Amino acid sequence: MNIDSIIQWLLIFVPLALSPGPANILFAASGSSFGVKGSLPFWLGTNIVCIFQILFVGFGLGYVISAYPLFIEILKYIGILFLLYLAFKFFKMSVKKIEKIEPLSFKNGLIVEFLNVKFLIIPIIMFSQFYSAKNDSVTQFIILTISLSLLTMISNLIWILGGKVLISFVTSSNVQKVQGTIFGLMLCLTALWLAIG
């Protein structure tokens, strides 16, 4: 990739990676509720699936998605139901003491990202715009996969840290309960947006 391609790649994918979405909202909520250390298992789970999603798209999942749109539609609605389940967990946080709520787990991260069909669009865009079979395709494939994986991991950490910074200003248990309600509502709105979108 030349410098122009790198700049184009950054201009496209940095905003996409940093934009609010189901996983990023959960990262902020987890960071504010459980801190960076408590959010790491969830972060690791989502990012392992991200890497596999990028690889699968690079190896032809885009074809499968276009050939079997019903599969993606089913995953979409399962993902919406899981987001509503996680919203319920944050609503519970708003009525219980925060110490009683368990942090989002590695398993939750795997499930959230596996069902996050919105993320699949990003590697599809990347490979369709920046991959060329004419050039050294293996090197390109590896560079694109590593680049998007690193960008995603860094973006997720930014959301976790942002949530952690938010909670450092908000230490009252009443405010934390309101925060649980707000994050729960945000997840419900995200689920609604995914359902009608």
Automatic annotation (TrEMBL):
Compartments where found: Cell membrane
Coiled-coil residues: none
Membrane topology: Multi-pass membrane protein
Superkingdom field: Bacteria
Transmembrane regions: 6-28, 40-61, 67-88, 109-130, 142-166, 178-196
Entry keyword Transport: no
Single GO molecular function: amino acid transmembrane transporter activity
InterPro entries according to UniProt: LeuE-type (IPR001123)
Main location: membrane
Record Pfam families: LysE
GO annotation terms (biological process): cysteine export across plasma membrane
Keywords assigned: Cell membrane, Membrane, Transmembrane, Transmembrane helix
One Gene Ontology term, aspect cellular component: plasma membrane
Name of the featured protein: Lysine exporter protein (LYSE/YGGA)
Annotated organism of origin: Arcobacter nitrofigilis (strain ATCC 33309 / DSM 7299 / CCUG 15893 / LMG 7604 / NCTC 12251 / CI)
